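Why do we care about 3D structure at all? Because function follows from shape, and shape follows, mostly, from sequence. That is the central idea of this module. The next example makes it concrete: a single protein chain, its amino acid sequence, and then its structure expressed as tokens.
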Amino acid sequence: MDFIETVGVYVENTSFGFDKNYTYKVPEYLADKIFIGQRVFVPFSASNKKRQAIITKINPESSSKKLKEIFDLIDEQAILNENQLKLAEFIKERTFCSFFDAVKLLIPIGISEKIKTFYSLSEKAYEKDSEILEIIAKNKKISLEDLSKALNLSESKTRTKLKKFIDENYIIESFVSIRKVGDLSKNFYEIKSQDLTLEELLSYATSKAQKSVLKFLYETNGAFERDILEFTSVTKTVLKTLLKKDLIISTPEEVLRKPYMPNLKTLDKDFKLNDEQQKVYENILAEYRDDKPHVSLIYGVTGSGKTHVFLKLIDEAIEDDGGIIVMVPEISLTSQLLSIFKSRYGSKVAILHSALSIGERLDEYKRIKRGEAKIVIGTRSAVFAPFDKINLIVMDEEHDDSYKSQSTPKYDTNTIAKYLVNRDKSLLILSSATPDIESYAKAKKGIYSFNKITKRFSKLDLPEVIKVDMRGVYDIFSPILVEKINEQLEKDHQVILLINRRGFNTFIRCEECGEVVLCPNCSVAMTYHRAGKKLMCHYCGYTKAYTETCPNCKEESLIYSGAGTQKVDYEISNLFPDKSILRMDSDTKTYGASFEKKMQDFKDGKYQILVGTQMVAKGLDFENVTLVGVLSADKQMYDDDYKSSERTFDLITQVVGRSGRGKFTGKAIIQTMSPENDIINYAANQDYEAFFNREIKIRKAMIYPPFCTICKIDFSANNPEKAQRAAKAMFSLLSDNSDMIIFGPIEKRIFKLHNKYRYQILIKFRNGKKQREKLKKVFETYYLKKEARGVVMTPDIIK
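And the structure:
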């Protein structure tokens, strides 16, 4: 290997225009310890502030004669391999994020380093009087955070105030790197000298307790601390004394934190597939065995046993050299899937999602990296599982919007998964009862292989669906819905009720002046939550106490209307007071043991009615549910989004599919203000093909995906004029591109959010490297303009 003199790195927290590879000198004492994929600390910018960076090149060419030198290593070895660095580059290029933001997706948050700044006084500081110097002198060494609190200033203002003192050498600034989560370990104790006999060893003990420990360690050839304390009934003080006497030694051994595992739900190891399932299995097995990349869509009606098919495939794939990733859109769905997989594949299964503790995520990452786990179950972040090679990826409920990240980097899981299967020549399975329009279009064109399951695994028919016209009905429940609920409860069956709004009342208006009660931080209506008697903003979390006084005209004339899950829970409890109701929404949502207990209690019949938001529409499998009620089917249909019809169809179809999955045929009731609407009718008839044919024609006519790619560019600032000026500056830069259709700038539907005002530009274009390079150059030019200052610009590619 050549002697390492310089490295190319990407630096953390750089703005879009400055996110590039920088060359640094390597100190001689570190030259033999440098690896590509390793994190280091470097001086950055004119102030030489200490920043994290990751090495991507060794001895790169550089025209600069004055190179800065790296400070130190963060990692002893590389934390990312060459494939992972290429993936980070791919994410950066596709989402317009920084390289380091992409890197953060690939490493567990637990090994992230946080740099803390500390201040102490030089010798000459004691000659000068100053409030700042006095505070530091009292503490000897104080962090920036604590000093800012003492001065009652923001950290940026504190830095400004300190600059002169640092420049004149009164204050010494230092940096300490702190890892967010350490490795968990437990101490292993053993006899230090193996040459001593037991009698010789015991002669050095001065108490009965010491002799007890020494005898135990001699006979067991060493033991962990907990076992020693348990079997000898001594305290830790005895161990400390023996360590001081140099009679025993202690070695920390790593312990991996284990996430909560649900009660094991088993499937017969040798379950039989029906004819349709067997045909699909044989098709995807052939693709899996082929040494080429493949994407396969499994379109099966709700309850058709799509999980059984890919379980059979995993039975084959797990014996091969490579990893398997199985994803679901919601954390709440991982519990039942994990239960099945754990009972079938045991310790070969790991779990990755955001509800795990930082320590648990770190240790699951280690198990995968070491090859101890071959299957990863999780939500969208599981796609970044650190397998050297991936053999199979399954995206269950692949249509779900949760697979698209809403925070930077705004990646699409489908796009990442396709990149990985192309890289490793493996198989991606997309599975859904309501496939994404683009996925279905590609399957019909032969770009993806197409597999269809038309019958339920239970051999029962799909639920009978009844539409109810709610025009002129002012109650939450129509008479027929109440009648059918009562009918099913009398049979000891269970009911699911869907309303996709949480809270008690969703709209508060003054009867006198007509003013709607809005959040002061956001341009959205407040929602009344009966629990706690408070009005709440569901976007920023702002709350205020229940009131009947209008904030505008001060009259006691507020009217509370609209219904959310809390009100449905309240009203259904009044209608059926002897029945137990379970509510599931983001106000009650829990994970792990608590969540599983609620689901198990419902399955065991301890609750008769389940009320919830869209959480109850996805993937849940309860055999005794024979009635589903959709209380307000129209809500999503009129959103200002080209996918609003698709989301409405998906939601209704999916929740209707929760009914009749066991021994009894199910029913579903859809309450709607638009009974003649095509989308409602297609969903009621469970007719995806008719819905797709209508939707694809509209999208072609309107030039929406899959006939184009959309890039949304958001602008956010603390005053509306600033955000608008930035958006107009961007529009001016984009307007020269004749191969793009540009709309805007316009106010976003929620114009004010978290006290920031928001504008948006929407671009339609054909997604390709050339077009993305054009956009990148436009963004770089934009950041040089004065209008960009103080404005957060966020691009988001929609497939």
